[in-house]
Amino acid sequence: MTMLPVRSIGGIRVSAIGLGCMNLSHAYGETPSEAEGARLLNHALDQGVTLLDTAALYGGGANERLIAKAVMHRRGEFVLASKCVLDLHDGKRGLDGSPAAIARTLDGALQRLGTDHIDLYYLHRLDARVPIEESVGALVRAKEAGKIGAIGLSEMGAETIRRAYAVHPVAAVQSEYSPVVRNPEIAVLDTCRELGIGFVAFSPVARGLLAGAVRSDDYVEGDIRRNMPRFTGDNLRHNLAAVSRFEALAADAGVTPAQLALAWVLSRGEQVVPIPGTRSIAHLDEDLAAATLSLEPALLEKASAVFAAGTIRGARYAAPMQAQIDTETFADEELA
C-alpha cells in the first residue's frame, strides 16, 4: 500500500486527500458498474487513501452497499464516514433531523454497510424545524451506544457549529470548498480553527469545472449540474473564461488544473482535507499526486485571484437545494 501524507481532523488521522464516494452511485448521470466502482475503491486504498466518505442519500443507500461489498473486508485500512438527516423519507428526498429519523437512518446505514460502527457520522444538512441540539443529542446517544465514533456536521454555518459543539465536541465540518466556492472563508474555517475541528472540503475541483470535465452544458440525464445555475447557459459560458485562465496557470506550473485546485485547498490549513470524487482510476491517481506537490505561494495566490469575488456568475444551487444550506453566503452572492 502506498503512503500519503497524513492530516488530523478532530483527532482522527486520515490521508491528506480522501475520497468522496458519491459519484460512484449518484448525482452525475450514468453510474459505473458495481465492478468498476469496486476497482476504484480498492485502488484508492492501495494508493494510501484512508478516508472514504459516503451518505445514506447517495443512490438511495446504494453507495453504502457498494462500499460494504467492495472494501469492508479491508475495514482496518480506512476511516469510514457517512451521513444522515438528508435522506429518502417515504421514498422522497428530504430533511428529517428528528432523533427518531436519525436513529432509523443510522441503523439502516449500519445494515447496508455490514458493520456495527461508523467512524465519523455527519448531520448531512440542518433541518431548521428541529433544534440542532436535538439532532446532535441523537448522535451523542449513538456514540454512547458504540454505533458511531465521532460527530460531524455538513454545510452548516458558524453559529450552528457553535451550538452543536456546546452539546458535544464536533470532529469535522464538511462543506463545498474550492478556488471557485469560498463560502467557508466567511466564518466556518475560522470557527473550525478556534474549536479544533477538522474541515473536510467536498467538490474541491468544483464539480469537475477545474478538472477539464465541463466544456458545455450538454450534460447527460440525471446530472445534477443541469439544475445548478452556474453550470448552464450564459452563466457557464462566462465562467469558463475564468476557468481558462486557471488552466493556463496550471499549465505554466506543469501541473493539471485539478492538481492546482487540490494543492490550493490543501494550502488553506493543516486541518483541511479535500475529498475529490471520481469514477476514473487515472483521475484518482492525478488527484492524489497533489498531496505531495510543492507549489509556490505566489502561484496559489494567483489561483485565488482568478476567482475573486464577483467573477463567477450564477447561484451555487437551485432554490430548493439552497434552502437546505446553512453555510454563510456573501452579500453579493446569487442565491437562485
UniProtKB/TrEMBL annotation:
The keyword Amino-acid biosynthesis does not apply. This is Aldo/keto reductase. Residues 16-296 form the NADP-dependent oxidoreductase domain. Gene3D superfamilies: NADP-dependent oxidoreductase domain. One of its GO terms (molecular function) is oxidoreductase activity. One of its GO terms (cellular component) is cytoplasm. Keywords: Oxidoreductase. PANTHER family: AFLATOXIN B1 ALDEHYDE REDUCTASE, ALDO-KETO REDUCTASE YAKC [NADP(+)]. InterPro entries: AKR, Aldo-Keto_reductase, NAD(P)_OxRdtase_dom_sf, NADP_OxRdtase_dom.
